[in-house]
Amino acid sequence: MASYESEDRQGAGRRKLARYAVPVAVVGVAAATIGLVPALADSGDPDLPKITAQELIEKIAKSDTERLSGTIKIHTDLGLPSLGGVASGLTGGNGGSGDKGSASADPREKLTELATGTHTLRVAADGENRQKLSILDDASEYSVIHNGADVWAYDSGSDQAYHAKTEQTAGDDRAKKQSPDVPATPKQLTDEILKASADTTSFTVDGTAQVAGRDAYRLQIKPKQSGSTVGAITVSVDAKTGTPLKFTLTPAGGGAAVVDAGFTKVDFAKPSASTFDFKPSQGTKVTEADDLPRRDHPGRTGRAPSAADLDGLNVIGEGWTTVAELKLPGDAAGAAGLASGNAPSGMPAEAQGFLNSLGDKVSGKFGSGTVYSTRLVNVLITEDGKVYAGAVTKSALVKAADAG
């Protein structure tokens, strides 16, 4: 499935982030994102021709699947509470589905919900210019539709829509494409991991499986380096098309998968053209992307920070143990509060409790600060307002901060 890509400053920021973020791109700021699939039909391991890990990787790289439709189950377990309300508190948002007073149906706010819990997605793609992703809830549906020059997002719970043009006029210094870039299919997740693997990774073929009624090979990906919080990634690859059908990331500390994404149904036939049609009904509140505030001051515009906001980014190390170093946006008082393990004053109580529950005081050559931990990603905030983040252990994070 083709991903929505930005060609502006955000695109450059994402490329800058790739060196450290790819091993955890599956969680992103949000994150990345994908689901537990206990309902997948598993009728035993199919008997397939032998294949080497290199041949399987080449099969994925050569996969030219541009047309498909299906249902994906998503479960993400970072050890965090539900981010439905917390995310709004952290980013300054104004509510979510079902909230008529929320700012818009902007995908960059809604898709943060994929960072925790279990979700069902319906996806469809017909080449580079037509894609659709829908998040299905019990009583509502949220969809992002890319059809030619238009990107629409619609939240049925709040009856709000978001609209952006993918093509801007020549010379326009704003984004030429305004669309979400959260990895939301096994294919997108696998591509991100393979881009950054290089010599720091071990690849093996771990047998076969059947996913969504299709025969598949299992590619197992493991870091060679110590200090990473990633234990292993297993990708089930369609034996016929080379399309990744399931993606599972397990932590080095053991336990349930942190990210587990897979198709429960998949069809490689061309979707109906009507799948990508959208027209807001009378009474729907429509927000144009050009009317939303710029993200010059993350956290103050009601928007989550983006890669383009990370101008001071420095990368320490390489491979799975790379750590990002950057300056914390915001005032010094807020940085000092976070470094002391306390949420800034004025933050909603739910968000304050969320941050305080994660904090762990540490010190080293860099000074002192607080490490905020999940099952996969650790973030160190120092008293002088620097941030160190990566899919590494606390000790590896402190070591990187000392080196930085």
Main attributes?
6-stranded antiparallel beta sheet, about 400 residues, single chain, about 20% helix, 18 strands, 8 helices, outer membrane lipoprotein receptor (LolB), chain A, disordered N terminus
Percent of sequence in beta strands = 25-35%
Radius of gyration of CA atoms, rounded to a whole number: 21 Å
Cα distance spanning the termini = 38 Å
| Sheet of most strands | 12 strands, mixed
Major β-sheet strand ordering: 7-8-9-10-11-1-2-3-4-5-6-12
Average predicted local confidence, pLDDT: 76
CATH superfamily membership of the largest domain, which one? Lipoprotein localisation LolA/LolB/LppX
Shape: globular
Classify the secondary structure makeup into a structural class: alpha+beta
Descriptive report:
A hairpin with a 4-residue loop joins strand 5 and strand 6 (160-165). The two termini are 38 Å apart. This protein folds into two domains: 9-291, Lipoprotein localisation LolA/LolB/LppX (outer membrane lipoprotein receptor (LolB), chain A, Clam); 312-403, no CATH class. The chain is globular, with a radius of gyration of 21 Å. The strands form two sheets. It has a twelve-stranded mixed beta sheet, with helices on one face. A six-stranded antiparallel beta sheet has the order 13-14-18-17-16-15, with helices on both faces. 19% of the residues lie in helices and 32% in strands. With 404 residues, the protein is α+β, with helices and mostly antiparallel strands. The chain is built from eight helices and 18 strands.
